[in-house]
Write a structure and sequence with these properties.
single chain; 165 residues; mainly beta; Jelly Rolls; 4-stranded antiparallel β-sheet; 1 helix; 10 strands; 2% helix; elongated
Length: 165
């Protein structure tokens, strides 16, 4: 946002988005809808932790969407490994282990093809889609239904609204 001063009249020209009290509608900024993005490999899946390095979805946030983009297809020795994508507390307590993307959505078939985008709201949606995550902040955990992944890379994009905004 910028201003320009007209030297003859001493009048400011305003450039950029002007915010309002939202009563009448208008442009919103990134303070309302937030995005969290994780990119990970098969041998370094996101998990909860106590190091404060993990991205945290704030307490009482409402998850609008979760999309898993397969960058490199996942393979496993059993060829039956699905992915579970959910949120845990930093202490390792499950908020919902597959609340963002379920194993039925991220099957071995769908995660095996690069370019696939798996939507957590498709079919039977994940339990956290369009609801709040509860009174505790959540950290992403991605887990295979079996511990035999041998390749794969993906990006998860979670869209959410912070509580009270």
């Amino acid at each position: 946002m910028g201003f320009e001063l007209d030297s003859k009249r001493g009048v400011f020209n305003h450039y950029g988005v002007r915010t309002t009290d939202q009563k009448f509608g208008g442009n919103v900024d990134d303070e309302v809808i937030k995005f969290a993005v994780w990119t990970f490999d098969y041998d370094d899946l996101p998990t909860y932790g106590t190091s404060n390095l993990q991205m945290v979805i704030p307490a009482n946030a409402r998850i609008l969407s979760a999309k898993l983009e397969i960058i490199t297809g996942f393979t496993s020795t059993s060829t039956t490994t699905d992915l579970l994508v959910g949120l845990y507390t930093s202490a390792g307590v499950a908020i919902d282990a597959d609340g963002l993307i379920t194993a039925a959505q991220a099957t071995q078939t769908t995660i095996a093809t690069a370019g696939n985008v798996i939507d957590g709201a498709s079919g039977t949606p994940g339990a956290l889609i369009n609801v709040t995550i509860g009174a505790t902040a959540g950290e992403l955990v991605v887990a295979g239904s079996a511990a035999d992944l041998t390749a794969g890379r993906a990006r998860l994009i979670v869209e959410y609204i912070k509580a009270g905004i």
